[in-house]
Amino acid sequence: MEIPISTLQEMLNNAATLGAMSAVKKLDPVKDQLKASEVRTWLGNDSNLSRKFDAMVRKGMIKGFKKGTSQNSPYYYSKLQIEAAFAAVRCKSLL
After folding, report:
1. How confident is the model at residue 94 (pLDDT cuts 50, 70, 90)?
2. What order do you get walking across the sheet with 33-35 strand by strand?
C-alpha cells in the first residue's frame, strides 16, 4: 500500500504536535489540564469540534478526572489526550 505524500505529511505533522504537547505535559503537568468549561474555549468555540469532543468522551477516547473528592468538583481533561483523539480521527480519515 502506497501512502500519498500529503497524507504522510499530515500524519507526521500530527505526530510532531503530539510530541511537543507530551514534552509540555512532562515539564509542567498543570499546563496540560483544562476544566470541562475551558475545553470549549480551547477548541475555539467551534460547535462542530465541541460535538466531536462530547462524542469522544462518550466513547471513552477522552477520559476526564476530578482533582477533589467533592461531588461538585469539576472534571479536568488533558490537552494531550484531546489532541491525540482528534489526531487519531484525522489519521483514520486520511487512510
Report:
1. low
2. 33-35, 75-78, 65-66
Q: How many CB atoms are closer than 10 A to CB 15?
A: 12
**Residues belonging to the chain:** 95
Q: What confidence tens digit (pLDDT) does each residue in 38-81 have?
A: 998 998 888 888 899 999 999 999 999 998 888 899 999 999 99
Which residue from 35, 10, 23 is spatially nearest to 88, judged by alpha carbons? 10
All three cell numbers of 87, joined, read 489526531
Q: Which three cell numbers stand for residue 51?
A: 460535538
Counts for the chain of helices (H) and strands (E), in that order: 4, 3
| pTM of the shown model | 0.82
Strands of 1-95, DSSP E: 33-35, 65-66, 75-78
